[in-house]
Amino acid sequence: MTSVTDTRPAPLKIGPLTLDVPVVLAPMAGITNTAFRRLCREFGAGLYVSEMITSRALVERTTESMRLINHHESEKTRSIQLYGVDPKTVADAVTLLVAEDRADHIDLNFGCPVPKVTRKGGGAALPWKLGLFRQIVEAAVTAAGPVPVTVKMRKGIDSDHLTYLEAGKAAEGAGVAAIALHARTAAEFYSGQADWSAITTLKNTITSVPVLGNGDIWSAEDALRMVAETGCDGVVVGRGCLGRPWLFGDLAAAFRGDASGTPAAKIEPTLGQVADAFRRHAVLLTEFFESEERACRDIRKHVAWYFKGYPVGGDLRASLASVVSLAQLDDLLGTLDGDQEYPGVGAEGPRGRAGTPKKTSLPEHWLDSQELVSAERAHLTEGEGDTSGG
């Protein structure tokens, strides 16, 4: 294993923004709403990005999109991720955010591998059409003015259709403030092991803006190792923080640690502390949704992640996963033995659905050419109709 000695990077600069801890919360549909972002901030530091918001829906000011772009007053750096396939629509969405002072940072999604997105030519499929990719990024950067724009992408569609180097150079030329790479292809989804060597290659190619690495960061040690092995300027953390908002505390301590390379003490919560974080999450969701009932429905999907590895019986887990009120949640959590110690490796490692490698859903004849043909524009227009939040 590579030593973590002297791996502390300099403060991460994303345009006018400076992060003393070079850590970014990856946008995750249905997860990184205001409630979860606030909870993660309470444990650590970094940049916390919103759920993906569809540009057309935002321009049309749909109720859901306008709700998703709201930030709590405690969120001092407001970060929003946009998804779009049309340069003008993306530019209009960025203009709205900037003109109404709703964002301090805008990220563009070119990494989503979900079939409903890629089959319309969006997400991880779009950089294959390099000219269109460049137009979208240039339009966003121009519309954003002083607000920094970044891009998040994957290696490509599959191993035969890699796009990250050409897209990275195009984004750099268009004036983005940073580039993040999830070191998998769309076809890999979240399966297997992320190819960190691709992050190294991108970092060696892009020289004027920071390169951030994403993929298989399950611990602070993983983050330090990624920086040491790839030379990247910071890390983007996604599934590793599911049910573990305190991971951002681990990351902050690790990156702020001394130069001796001695690992910082890891947060190892008791079962009671996990229960407290789980309940806090539910309370924040209640504020976000302005509905206790809806918050309880939403917190159910987090049960397995929070209590992974802890001695919580199947019946209790099932009850937590069907909770309907905070009062009921309190009653259930009150039955736990809060003094149960951290279970170690059982609570760590991969979480979330990895999926399996499979052929990426694409518009017909999408791979025939890297130039966008007129017949393909209809697919792109349809793709803009997807609901914000993924």
UniProtKB/TrEMBL annotation:
Keywords: Flavoprotein, FMN, NADP, Nucleotide-binding, Oxidoreductase, RNA-binding, tRNA processing, tRNA-binding. Gene3D superfamilies: Aldolase class I, Putative flavin oxidoreducatase, domain 2. It catalyses: a 5,6-dihydrouridine in tRNA + NAD(+) = a uridine in tRNA + NADH + H(+); a 5,6-dihydrouridine in tRNA + NADP(+) = a uridine in tRNA + NADPH + H(+). The active site is at residue 112. Residues 340-365 are annotated as: Disordered. Its EC number is 1.3.1.-. Pfam families: Dus (PF01207). Belongs to the dus family. Catalyzes the synthesis of 5,6-dihydrouridine (D), a modified base found in the D-loop of most tRNAs, via the reduction of the C5-C6 double bond in target uridines. PANTHER family: TRNA-DIHYDROURIDINE(47) SYNTHASE [NAD(P)(+)]-LIKE. This is tRNA-dihydrouridine synthase. The gene is dusB.
